[in-house]
Amino acid sequence: MTNIVNITDKFTKEDKGILQIGNKKYEIDKSVEAVMRFEELADDQRVKAVVAALEGALGEKASKEIGVRKMGAENLKVLLSGVTAAMQGISFEEVAARFQQQ
Questions:
Q1: What is the 8-class DSSP label of residue 13?
Q2: Which residue among 4, 17, 24, 64 is least enclosed by CB atoms within 10 Å?
Q3: Contact by Cβ (8 Å): 16, 61
Q4: Mean pLDDT of 68-73
Q5: Is 5 inside a domain boundary?
Q6: What single-letter DSSP state applies at residue 40?
Q7: Tens digit of pLDDT for each residue in 36-69?
Q8: Residue 48 lies in a domain
Q9: How far apart are alpha carbons 18 and 1 in whole angstroms?
Q10: Residue 22 and residue 26: Cα distance in Å, rounded?
Q11: Using 50, 70 and 90 to split pLDDT, how confident is the model at 19?
């Protein structure tokens, strides 16, 4: 006899993460496709690639508003960790700890 496993109610309905900076909230696409694009660029670890990954995740308007291209390297790392956390649905601290282990 066939075993039917119904996972219909297990899927989350949200496909966007939220990144908050001050009083502003920015939507982050959490789809597998978006995460793969982000990781592919961010894994390069060159500043140019990391900036491209962040701009892709945040969108042009939010990237300019946040000032991604004018940030210092430390703030860029913080933003990268925040976007990663929003995409993966985990805490900022968990992502920051992973980066420290590498």
A1: S
A2: 4
A3: no
A4: 94
A5: no
A6: H
A7: 999 999 888 889 999 999 999 999 999 999 999 9
A8: yes
A9: 44
A10: 11
A11: very high
Tokens (6 digits) for 47:
């500043």
Tokens of 22: 């001050």
Q: Give how many domains the chain has, as a whole number.
A: 1
- In the numeric block, the tokens 């991604």 are attached to 68
Q: What single-letter DSSP state applies at residue 4?
A: P
- Residue 66 dihedral angles phi and psi, to the nearest 5°: -75, -30
User: If residue 25 lies in a helix (H) or strand (E), which one and from where to where?
Assistant: strand 24-29
Domain that holds residue 76: 14-101
Tokens of 99: 């980066």
In a domain, 8, yes or no: no
| Residue 74 within a domain | yes
User: pTM of the full predicted structure?
Assistant: 0.83
- 85 close to 94: Cβ distance less than 8 angstroms: yes
Which H or E run includes 14?
Answer: none
67: left (phi > 0), else alpha (psi -120 to 50), else beta? Answer: left
Res 101: pLDDT: 63
